[in-house]
From TrEMBL:
Residues 11-162 form the Nitroreductase domain. PANTHER family: OXYGEN-INSENSITIVE NADPH NITROREDUCTASE. The keyword Cell membrane does not apply. Belongs to the flavin oxidoreductase frp family. The keyword Oxidoreductase applies. It comes from Anaerococcus cruorum. This is Nitroreductase family protein. Keywords: Flavoprotein, FMN, NADP, Oxidoreductase. InterPro entries: Flavin_OxRdtase_Frp, Nitroreductase, Nitroreductase-like.
Length: 249
């Protein structure tokens, strides 16, 4: 097994970092990794906004309801970006609505997530800690305003990284056989039976966000996490429309 796979199998979410900035050479390498990430049709529908202002980080943390977000030495926001290519086409008198449709938005969202994941793999290969921040969608409109994002852009995910200052447990995962099928999707008669051992395993896991207390079983977490919505997240689709994407085709 090579070192890259070992790092991926050892992935942990890091929420506390040493108060040290990384060398600019490392940052340049990570940006180059993002730049060379696979892209739908080679259109490169993403951009990155590096958050360096401490006060702005605090606003992001308040928006996301996670104070440790403000303590990430490096915080990047990956953005779906159809604005750049649409503007290029418009300057050449070749723009059309197909360029800003929902299909292209999905391509841009995919490009953004792939780039973020490639940066994550690269960062962890350098011994760095990483944390994804989906909490930017707690109030996506607010994030758009904070970043001064133009129409035809949309924040996809945040990524905090730096030198880790904690060693959390490896979070258990569901059996891969419940997630892997051949040729067609498979359903099971009793999912609770299938995840019984995983449920037990999850209750032995300590999440450092929760005062070192053990967490609930996975089946108990489902209605708490998947069955509830954080205020303003139900406005994400509305915000997408406000950003100028055409989704009614």
């Amino acid at each position: 097994m090579n070192e890259t796979i070992k790092n991926q199998l050892n992935h942990r979410t890091i929420r506390e970092f040493k108060d040290e900035k990384l060398d600019e050479g490392v940052i340049e390498s990570l940006l180059n990794v993002a730049n060379m990430s696979p892209s739908s049709n080679g259109m490169q529908f993403f951009s990155i906004v590096k958050i360096t202002d401490p006060e702005l980080k605090k606003k992001f943390a308040a928006n996301g309801l996670q104070d440790y977000m403000a303590r990430a030495p490096h915080l990047w926001i990956f953005v779906v970006d159809l604005y750049r290519n649409y503007t290029i086409a418009k300057e050449n008198g070749q723009e059309n609505d197909e360029m800003i449709g929902f299909d292209k938005f999905i391509q841009g969202f995919t490009d953004s997530i792939i780039a973020a994941q490639n940066v994550t793999v690269a960062a962890e290969s350098l011994g760095l800690g990483v944390n994804y921040f989906g909490n930017i969608h707690n109030d996506t409109k607010n994030i758009i305003e904070l970043l001064n994002l133009p129409k035809l852009t949309y924040p996809a995910v945040g990524l905090g990284f730096g030198l880790a200052n904690q060693e959390p447990q490896l979070k258990p995962r569901m059996d891969i056989n419940l997630k892997t099928f051949e040729n067609s999707y498979q359903t099971f008669d009793n999912y609770n039976e299938k995840i019984a051992e995983y449920d037990k395993e999850m209750t032995t896991y300590y999440d450092l966000r929760n005062a070192n207390r053990r967490v609930d079983s996975f089946s108990t977490q489902i209605p708490k996490k998947q069955g509830t919505i954080i205020a303003n997240r139900n406005k994400m689709f509305e915000t997408l429309i406000d950003q100028g994407f055409i989704i009614n085709k």
